[in-house]
Amino acid sequence: MAGAKVLLMMGCPEIPIQTSIALYLSHKLTKLGFDVSVAGTEAATRLLKVSDSDGYYAKNLVSLDKTLEDIMEKRDDFDICFAFMHNDAGMTYAATMSAISQAKLYSIVFGRNAEALAETIEFEGEKIIAKDVHNPLRLKNKLDKVVEGIIG
Length: 152
Prior knowledge:
Pfam families: DUF1890. By secondary structure, this protein is of the alpha/beta class. 45% of the residues lie in helices and 22% in strands.
C-alpha cells in the first residue's frame, strides 16, 4: 500500500484532539511511504499551519472544498480517506466523500457524543470511535492498529 494516496479530511476544529491526531497520522503515514494530503475547513487548516509552521508533519495541506470539487469533477481521487468527525457537519463531509470517491473510508468519530454519532452513520466504511475530547492517546492507539492493518 506504500505510495497509495491518502486524504485526511478535517471538519470544524472545535474538539482539541483533532489537530494533534491529524498531525500525528499525517506524519506516520508519510514516513511509511504514503502520499498524504490533509484537507480541512479554513479554521482547521489555520490551526495546522500554526502548529506545524514548517510543514514538517503535514507536508501537503489543501482546501477541503477544492479537494471535494476536484474529486467530483474527476480531476483527483484517493485510495484511502480518514474522515474526522465529531458533529453532523463532519459526517456530511464523510458522506459526501463516500458518494463521490472510490477511496476506502475510515470514519474517525471522536468527542463526548462519539458513540451516538457513530450509530447514525449510514455509509460504508470502518469506524474508529473514541469518546475523548482532550486526551488523544486512546484514539492514537486505535489508529496505530488500523494503520498496521493497512500496511499488512
